[in-house]
Every structure is written in structure tokens, then in C-alpha cells.
Design goal:
heterodimer; A: 6-stranded mixed beta sheet; 11 strands; 0% helix; 59% strand; B: mainly beta; 4-stranded antiparallel beta sheet; globular
Chain lengths: 111, 114
């Protein structure tokens, strides 16, 4: 089935690390994505990971993938107020590249 | 430079009055997608075009149609908008439909139905 779940809300202090978690159900997913959405705006691609990898680092972002548990996480180091947004994980399905999005996690960064 | 452009950013229509949302892209991508995102929900794929081939999702209501007159432009037509169609509509593009092809999103058009 197609189901991607995330916790709804995360609050951190500026300078701390943020970890946003995601679980998915379709084991055939080959690519998993993290998108950022600021209020009233579209989706900005942050990073992605291929299913045969277990970690990917890109500047302040670290993606961890546990394929056995179908668990994906996004760690943001040194979180800034500009990181406040909704973060969506998404899995890409099969031949049509259909993206199944999670419910989104609202990250609030306190100064 | 904007790569996926959606106009207008905000659209107000009346219940039952047809409305068209537009999307254009400067990436020369083969695939264009339309997603619907209702308030506090995840985006949901409505349909996509691969070149001129239209691919509808099974649960997309018949009220929603799409046109792609050329590579650069794609339109979303809502024939008789209901109150439940108020949402953000997101356009995205990718080079192909294989899983590793990143989708690039436009800023979205927020539709309000009165």
C-alpha cells in the first residue's frame, strides 16, 4: 500500500540539531525525497537518497535510511530560524515517478 | 530565474464557474505534473503528461481536466468548482518518469471557491 507518515510538529532552539522522522510502507520505493515548504509557497527539493544507500550528507543536512524498518530521517545541523517550514518526505513509486508525500512536519525554530 | 512558473498565484472563483490554472516551464522537461494540496494535507497527484500522453490518477474526479498544448505549457481546468476544490495546486516537471528523476515544483496557485 501507499502510506507515508510523519510526526506533525517539532520545536527546537536556534543552533540545536533537528531530526525529522518519516516511515513509509512501500518496500519497492527506489528513491526517497525531502522537500521543504515555506508558508504559501511551493515545494523546494532539499535532498534525496537512493534506496541502496543508508546515509547521505549534504552540508547541514544528513539523511538516514533504514530500509529494513522503512524509516527515513532528516537531520538539520545548527538549525536556523530560516529553517522554519513544513518538511515533507516523499517516496517515488515505479515507472510513473509518482510521488507519495507524507503528512508533513512543521518545524518551529525558537530564537 | 524561475524555472516552473504558475499564474496566477491566487485565484478566486465562484461555485460552479469554470476556472483554469496555468503552468509553464523553461526546463524543456518532458513530464509535467499537477498536484492538489488541501489545507494541512500532503500534496496529492491528480495527473501528469509525458510529452503529449495524458495519465490520469484513478481517484482524480472527472471535474478536473488538463491540457498541454506544447512542451512549455500545461493547464488545469476545473469544470465546475465546488467548495471542496479550494486548495493549493502545484505544478511540477521532470525530465522523465523514472524514479530517480527529480521533480521541480512551481510556487503553486491557491484557489478559493466562493
Amino acid at each position: 500500500g501507499e502510506d507515508v507518515e510523519q510526526s506533525l510538529f517539532l520545536s527546537v532552539r536556534e543552533g540545536d540539531s533537528s531530526v525529522i522522522n518519516c516511515t513509509y510502507t512501500d518496500s519497492s520505493s527506489t528513491y526517497l525525497y525531502w522537500y521543504k515548504q515555506e508558508p504559501g509557497a511551493g515545494l523546494q527539493l532539499l535532498t534525496y537518497i537512493f534506496s541502496n544507500m543508508d546515509m547521505k550528507q549534504d552540508q547541514r543536512l544528513t539523511v538516514l535510511l533504514n530500509k529494513k524498518d522503512k524509516h527515513l530521517s532528516l537531520r538539520i545541523a545548527d538549525t536556523q530560524t530560516g529553517d522554519s517550514a513544513i518538511y515533507f518526505c516523499a517516496e517515488s513509486l515505479g515507472a510513473t515517478n509518482k510521488l507519495i508525500f507524507g503528512t508533513g512536519t512543521l518545524l518551529a525554530v525558537q530564537p | 530565474d524561475a524555472m516552473v512558473i504558475q499564474n496566477p498565484r491566487y485565484q478566486v472563483t465562484q461555485f460552479g464557474k469554470p476556472v483554469t490554472l496555468s503552468c509553464s516551464q523553461t526546463l524543456n522537461h518532458n513530464v509535467m505534473y499537477w498536484y492538489q494540496q488541501k489545507s494541512s494535507q500532503a500534496p496529492k497527484l491528480l495527473f501528469h503528461y509525458y510529452d503529449k500522453d495524458f495519465n490520469n490518477e484513478a481517484d482524480t474526479p472527472d471535474n478536473f481536466q488538463s491540457r498541454r498544448p506544447n512542451t512549455s505549457f500545461c493547464f488545469l481546468d476545473i469544470r465546475s468548482p465546488g467548495l471542496g476544490d479550494a486548495a493549493m495546486y502545484l505544478c511540477a516537471t521532470s525530465t522523465r518518469t523514472s524514479a530517480q528523476e527529480t521533480q521541480y515544483f512551481g510556487p503553486g496557485t491557491r484557489l478559493l471557491v466562493l
